[in-house]
């Protein structure tokens, strides 16, 4: 455990060092890397991130320490820049970072609202019930949950997908701890790999897309490398999964009215966001907010037609003497889109605010120019991007990717795709390296653990290396 704590501390320190400097640091008098404020800011961010990584053990929500750290860092920056007569420069940097966060907040809020609406309409429950009812053996379930994680995460994000598949594994795995652990590892790897080739699959890919560095269609070049990243460890791990059948009982799940239409509206929302970005070069968030209007109008339609729908269902249930159907009808509540908004993962959204503002503050202090000079000027950019992926396994990939985007190094399209790939799938190396892994440690507490994941790290690392080699070979023309 001592070694784990030391590695966490080192990871947080390296990330803090990475998280600095933008164009503002180039302004004369703005370099505060050797100042007391600079060192204090690094220390505050490092301590905050240690608390974030200890969330599972401390039971402390990860948004709390970074929100406090962001406030302290910007308070110190405000005092220093006011003394230097450069407060307008600090305000411009603050507003820039707030705008960056606002775009991502609204984008993610709409996506999370749609996912919450699908969950409320029981789409995910129906999928889970279907998988359990088919009577698959453990090895088949291992491949099915992994494959579905890989295919769903590009649309529903890796965190939501991982939690959905984990629920299935927990239900069918029962007391078979070995199967639950290895299946959860497979889900984490598959969800992170699937999220790497879609702007909607992970926050890091979303950031790269919104920055305009990679277009929506260019992410498809990462499909095969991402697939390789999943398949290599999955094949090796599947050899250790038995073919015996679990003892499970199936249940019928009835979709609520409008469930399938909400899926279609979500697809239309994605198309709208892509259209705004591709045709008029506006931020995709404008299209996502328009897509939220689709859901609001559909929610209005569901509420207005609820009474008529219930009358028809009640008459049919009475005619068929179906008491269960009558009970379900009696428990129906109107669809409320604002209730779905309230069910968004606010801890994650606020955590992201803290990260963006901390990184933005350290950026203004000038640390990024120093680290960027080493990583992207003295090193080969390919090796620098591979290191980004390894760092994202030690700490969360969000601050690492945001730091790279703040650096804005001169990279080819191939290298931007590479850093997107490594930051996305590198988090699979450790259970604490991605939101999916951390969430599953909570959902399958005591069954999927840090050390249980660590045993398979060499196998996962093979997939990591194989995906990089695959990208370098297949997309060589993009470098």
From TrEMBL:
The keyword Transmembrane applies. Pfam families: CitMHS. The keyword DNA repair does not apply. It comes from the Bacteria. Residues 64-424 form the Citrate transporter-like domain. Keywords: Antiport, Ion transport, Membrane, Signal, Sodium, Sodium transport, Transmembrane, Transmembrane helix, Transport. One of its GO terms (cellular component) is membrane. It is a multi-pass membrane protein. One of its GO terms (molecular function) is antiporter activity. It is found in: Membrane. The chain crosses the membrane at residues 35-53, 65-81, 101-117, 138-156, 162-180, 187-210, 222-241, 262-279, 285-302, 349-370, 382-405, 417-444, 456-474. GO terms for biological process: sodium ion transport. Residues 1-25 form the signal peptide. Belongs to the NhaD Na(+)/H(+) (TC 2.A.62) antiporter family. This is Citrate transporter.
């Amino acid at each position: 455990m001592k070694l784990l704590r030391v590695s966490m501390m080192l990871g947080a320190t390296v990330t803090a060092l990475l998280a600095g400097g933008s164009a503002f640091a180039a302004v004369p008098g703005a370099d505060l890397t050797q100042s007391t404020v600079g060192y204090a800011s690094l220390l505050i961010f490092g301590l905050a991130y240690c608390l974030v990584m200890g969330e599972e053990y401390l039971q402390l929500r990860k948004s709390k320490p970074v929100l406090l750290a962001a406030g302290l860092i910007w308070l110190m920056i405000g005092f220093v820049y006011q003394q230097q007569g450069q407060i307008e420069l600090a305000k411009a940097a603050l507003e820039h970072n707030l705008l960056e966060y606002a775009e991502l907040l609204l984008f993610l809020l709409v996506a999370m609202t749609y996912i919450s609406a699908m969950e409320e309409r029981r789409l995910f429950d129906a999928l889970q019930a279907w998988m359990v009812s088919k009577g698959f053996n453990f090895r088949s379930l291992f491949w099915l949950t992994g494959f579905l994680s890989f295919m769903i995460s590009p649309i529903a994000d890796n965190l939501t997908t991982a939690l959905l598949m984990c629920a299935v594994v927990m239900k069918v795995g029962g007391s078979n701890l070995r199967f639950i652990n290895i299946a959860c590892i497979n889900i984490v790897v598959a969800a992170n790999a699937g999220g790497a080739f879609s702007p909607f699959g992970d926050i890091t890919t979303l950031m790269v897309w919104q920055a305009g560095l990679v277009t929506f269609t260019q992410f498809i070049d990462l499909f095969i490398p991402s697939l390789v990243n999943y398949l290599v460890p999955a094949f090796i791990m599947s050899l250790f999964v038995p073919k015996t059948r679990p003892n499970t009982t199936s249940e019928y799940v009835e979709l609520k009215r409008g469930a399938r239409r909400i899926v279609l509206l979500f697809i239309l929302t994605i198309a709208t966001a892509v259209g705004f970005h591709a045709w008029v070069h506006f931020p995709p968030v404008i299209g996502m907010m328009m897509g939220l209007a689709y859901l609001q109008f559909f929610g209005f339609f569901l509420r207005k037609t609820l009474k008529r729908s219930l009358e028809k269902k009640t008459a049919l249930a009475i005619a068929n003497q179906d008491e269960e159907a009558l009970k379900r009808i009696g428990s129906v509540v109107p669809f409320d889109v604002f209730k779905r908004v309230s069910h968004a993962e606010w801890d994650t959204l606020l955590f992201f605010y803290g990260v963006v503002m901390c990184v933005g503050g350290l950026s203004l202090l000038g640390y990024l120019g120093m680290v960027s000079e080493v990583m992207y000027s003295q090193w080969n950019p390919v090796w620098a991007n591979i290191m980004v992926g390894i760092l994202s396994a030690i700490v969360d990939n969000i601050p690492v990717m945001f730091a790279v985007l703040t650096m804005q190094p001169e990279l080819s399209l191939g290298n931007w795709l590479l850093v997107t790939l490594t930051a996305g799938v590198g988090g699979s190396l450790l259970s604490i390296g991605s939101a999916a892994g951390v969430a599953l440690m909570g959902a399958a507490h005591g069954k999927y653990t840090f050390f249980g994941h660590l045993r398979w790290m060499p196998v996962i690392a093979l997939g990591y290396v194989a995906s990089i080699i695959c990208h370098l070979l297949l997309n060589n023309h993009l470098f």
